[in-house]
Amino acid sequence: MNQLDGGGGAGTSGGPPHLATAPAKKKSAANTIENELEPDTAKAAKVADAATTAAVGGFEGWATAAGLKTVETTWDNQVKNLLARLASEKTALRGTAVAFSRQELDARARIAGVRPTSSIEKY
């Protein structure tokens, strides 16, 4: 015990840090992804596609058109990957909030089921 510095860990007794979760913040982050990031990303992709398509048409017959078409295909794939990642993160945030809530309810139910023994029960 003499080796403990008394200030270690996040717990007040120098024990391990406490597990903390913020369901409201997870929900807010998931909503931001759904209502802002996903739509804005899709909108930006369409603007870039329109500009690139116009440029490809302007350079028709030149090697530049083929290069721009390759860039457009790469861009579209990256946008699809980003949107899939955002959707995955949104789902994970919402799932984590639900999982922690279930875990907390389960722990409360188990604790509520434990009764202190009474000295009357000896008889």
Biggest sheet layout: none
N→C terminal distance: 41 Å
Number of β-strand runs: 0
Q: Cα-atom Rg, whole angstroms?
A: 28 Å
Count of alpha/pi helices: 2
**Which shape, going by the Cα principal axes?**
rod-shaped
Description:
The chain has two helices and no strands. The protein has helices spanning 23-58, 63-112. Mean pLDDT is 83; it is low at 6-11. 70% of the residues lie in helices and 0% in strands. It is rod-shaped. With 123 residues, it is mainly α.
The gist of it:
With 123 residues, the chain is mainly α.
How do the helices and strands line up, and which of them pair or pack?
Elements: H1 23-58, H2 63-112
Helix pairs in contact: 1-2
Quickly list its features.
0% strand, 123 residues, rod-shaped, mainly alpha, single chain
